[in-house]
Amino acid sequence: MYYYPHLNRYLDYHKQSLQDIENFWDYQGRIIPWFKRWEKVLEKNHPFYRWYVGGYLNASYVCLDHHLDSIRRNKIAYYWENELGQTESVSYLELYNRVNAFANFLKNLGVKKDDVVLIYMPMVIDSIVAMLAVARLGAIHSVVFSGFSKNAIIDRIEDSKAKYIITATHTYRRGKRIDLFPVVKDIDLPYIEKIIVLDRDGNFKEEGKFVKWNKDLEFVYVTPEIRESNDPLFVLYTSGTTGKPKGILHSTGGYLVYVASTLAWAFNVNDDSIWWCTADIGWITGHSYVVYSPLALGLTSFIYEGAPDYPNPEKWWSLIEKYKITEFYTSPTALRMFMKYGEDHIRKYDLSSLRMLGSVGEPINPEVWTWYYENVGNKKCPIIDTWWQTETGGFILAPFMGIIPLRPGYASLPLPGIEVDIVDEKGNSLPANTKGFIVIKKPWPGMMLGILNDEEKYKQTYWSKFENMYYPGDYAIKDENDYIQLLGRADEVIKIAGHRIGTFEVESAILESELAAEAAVIGVPDELRGEIAVAFVTLKEGIQSNEEIKQKILMKVREVLGPVVVFSNIFFVEKLPKTRSGKIMRRLLKSILTEKEIGDISTLEEEASVEEVRKAYEELKKTLA
Ligand code: PRX
Questions:
Q1: For 321-338, how does the pLDDT look when each residue is reduced to its tens digit (9 = 90+)?
Q2: Counting atoms of ligand 1 from 1, which one is nearest the CA of 397?
Q3: Ligand 1 center to residue 228 CA distance, Å?
Q4: Which atom of ligand 1 is found nearest the CA of 279?
Q5: Which atom of ligand 1 is nearest to the CA of 489?
Q6: Could you tell me which residue, 590 or 367, shows the higher pLDDT?
Q7: Edge-to-edge strands of the sheet including 327-330?
Q8: Which of 35, 421, 573, 592 has the fewest CB atoms within 10 Å, i.e. the most exposed one?
């Protein structure tokens, strides 16, 4: 690349940061306030890494109390608006008051240190109050996305042994009331002691273990529980290749240092920022960049409860104008949807307050990148494409402060203190322009503590494919300047509208319909959502395939997994193509649907001979014809 001073300075800085990562992160640890400084910056017990060992802190103190002695005391922490045009805002002091009051309320209900509290709430300020109140008591929150079903909640409670559920009566989306409390009302698990309900319409009746969250709680100061840096702050479930979702456990100290640092590095936010991250609190992006990092840095954020294009595609742009948003962070799926509507809906609004634009969750196609840059950013805002995962806690790749040259479709370079590489099957570094697996070569403070209740799975999933390298499960490629482009998942995980779903989970849900004998689910490209699901199903004996059966299966998946899974189709087949050892040939199924040449995939189908693949291919083609 031609000589770019900023790029070269960044590369020097980055190189320096890697020379002694302990020293680097030791210094960086000061970005948040601690009750007591750590004794050891990093303790290695591969593959378990512990950061800031012996350091004490409390997340709600970091996010709230810490700001009260400064100019931020009366600064707005959150602006909120919903589809009905209702608004609310809280200053840091008001948020502190509400968190203390609610923490006291929870304490009186019996919530204590290390209890797991499940939060099933909409995008309202109270949800953030709930997360911080739980953290203040030294308890562990397990936020479940409010679009998930009862079954998904039950699975998570059974795994985490959550004792309390915090929910709300309802939310609104696309002009409709969506009830939340009825979803959890009948959950009858022995560990559940109380279900605390935010009464949003004044009609909620307390009874038995159902407790009303009264908005006029009296302020009572609650001393923040002292947590060691590696005490867990939260567990968040995410999909993997096998079995039920895994409970990703995050630390308190390393996590907070990491999310605060990465937000500042990637977006160059400051005290004048009006930050809008459109993610729901139910996902890691919501945890890290709606709640913890903006608060730790003392920013003003905006949050919105509702659909992006309801009642029309102007909604979001009107909000950017109204709240004078300076940094805006969203997903490629949302952008693709807006692109479909043309540009008139954007032009009506003054978006000149914007300084930075971000993207997350799935690869951003160069066309979408360019559209975003030209139409939303008016060619003056860098696009900060951030690549990371639930497990990494915060951004791993992102163009540092937008000051390095940008390349459409590339998440660019690793942030300071982070070493990544693109490697082949054996873990050897690959040269430029060769597709391989992205790996992270050194530990970082935002990394998960592990998987709740499953050390083996943690080792197996992330640390067994390559020696001493963290394996995220994504394909990537780099250019001659080491800029990295992500090329999608390398495992059986699909990304529907940026939501991560294991094909295995969808298959299990299909089998739960009691109609299917076997199911194979794959992800296929979709113009709007990035990927969507396609299922190949064999039915149980005596069951005839027809539209009604298809609908029943779709309903079952919706019931088990919620509306997150979107199908393009369900194909009923006589038998699924399998290898001799009984493994379903998924890549073959995919190649048939994406009309790839059989030659491309015959070698990819491990364990199967070329002949087997060819035969299965021909048979299936016939069935689908
Ligand atoms: O495949 C990558 C994709 O999302 C996965 C992580 O999903 P999740 O844990 O749900 O976290 C989403 C929010 C961080 C990754 O393994 N992914 C995330 N960001 C990007 C991305 N793919 C390409 N480009 C990105 N910027």
A1: 999 999 999 999 999 999
A2: 26
A3: 29
A4: 13
A5: 1
A6: 367
A7: 87-91, 76-82, 300-305, 274-277, 327-330, 356-359, 383-385
A8: 35
386 CA to centre of ligand 1 in angstroms: 8
**Closest atom, ligand 1, to C-alpha of 391:** 9
- Predicted confidence (pLDDT) at residue 1 exceeds the cutoff of 70: no
With a CB cutoff of 8 Å and minimum separation 6, the contacts of 618 are: none
* Protein residue closest via CA to atom 22 of ligand 1: 362
Q: Chain centroid to CA 24: how far?
A: 27
Whose CA is closest to atom 18 on ligand 1?
361
Helices (H) and strands (E) in the chain, counts: 20, 30
Residue 624 one-letter amino acid: L
549 is written with which tokens? Answer: 């059966």
Encode pLDDT of 480-515 as tens digits.
999 999 999 999 899 999 999 999 999 999 999 999
What's the token pair of residue 1?
């690349």
Secondary structure of residue 243 in the 3-state scheme: coil
What is the CB < 6 Å shell around ligand 1? Answer: 238, 284-285, 359-363, 385-390, 411, 472-474, 486, 489, 495, 500
Confidence of residue 604 (pLDDT cuts 50, 70, 90): very low
Domains of the chain by start residue, with CATH: 7-478 (3.40.50.12780), 492-624 (3.30.300.30)
238, 221 Cβ separation under 8 angstroms: no
| Beta strands in 169-205, from DSSP E residues, in sequence order | 170-173, 176-179, 194-198
- CA–centroid distance, residue 279 to ligand 1 (Å): 13
Q: How is residue 261 written in tokens?
A: 């640092």
How confident is the model at residue 625, as a pLDDT? 62
Q: Write out the two tokens for 454.
A: 């499953």
| Residue pair 290/279 in contact by the 8 Å Cβ criterion | yes
pLDDT at res. 74: 98
pLDDT band at 603 (very low <50, low <70, confident <90, very high): very low
The residues pairing with 49 across neighbouring beta strands, listed in sequence order, are 44
CA distance 301 to 286: 12
SS3 258: helix
